[in-house]
Design brief:
GO terms for molecular function: protein-glutamine gamma-glutamyltransferase activity. It comes from Edolisoma coerulescens. Its EC number is 2.3.2.13. The protein has two domains: 71 residues, no CATH class; 48 residues, no CATH class. The chain contains one helix and seven strands; from the N terminus they run βαββββββ. The protein is elongated, with a radius of gyration of 23 Å. The chain starts with a strand and ends with a strand.
């Protein structure tokens, strides 16, 4: 498992596992790997993805199988809600909601709203 930058450049692997299984004829075998936020967080940036590469070898035939999966890490959405009627020339209140999906507090964030009729938008520190 490694991170992949938005440019496509892969970082060094930060997790490796090796499993040996005997699979009976007509059967399938499942291997599960859980990766916590604390484990991948030091390796990813704002627009990165995770790349899982799996390779297997069939001992009896020497056949090699490989598969790659890229998992794009999505950023949470901002929800905007008008709290009253929007009338030309009048102020309107807007509610902005952001839910932190991480298991740790976020700090140093700011919110900046821009749009028609908004003169000199000022960031709000959060």
């Amino acid at each position: 498992l490694c991170s992949v930058r938005y440019t496509g450049v892969a970082g060094a692997a930060f997790r490796q596992e090796q499993h040996r299984r005997t699979v009976p004829p007509g059967q399938e075998e499942t291997v599960t790997m859980t990766v916590t936020y604390a484990e991948y967080q030091p390796h990813v940036g704002d627009q990165d993805a995770l790349k899982l590469t799996v390779a297997g070898a069939v001992q009896e035939t020497g056949q090699v199988l490989a598969k790659e999966l890229r998992v794009r890490l999505h950023t949470p959405e901002l929800t905007l809600t008008l709290l009253g009627p929007a009338v030309v020339g009048q102020e309107v209140a807007i509610q902005v909601v952001f839910q932190n999906p991480l298991p740790e507090p976020l700090s140093g964030a700011s919110l900046r709203m821009e749009g028609a009729g908004i003169a000199c938008p000022k960031p709000v520190s959060l």
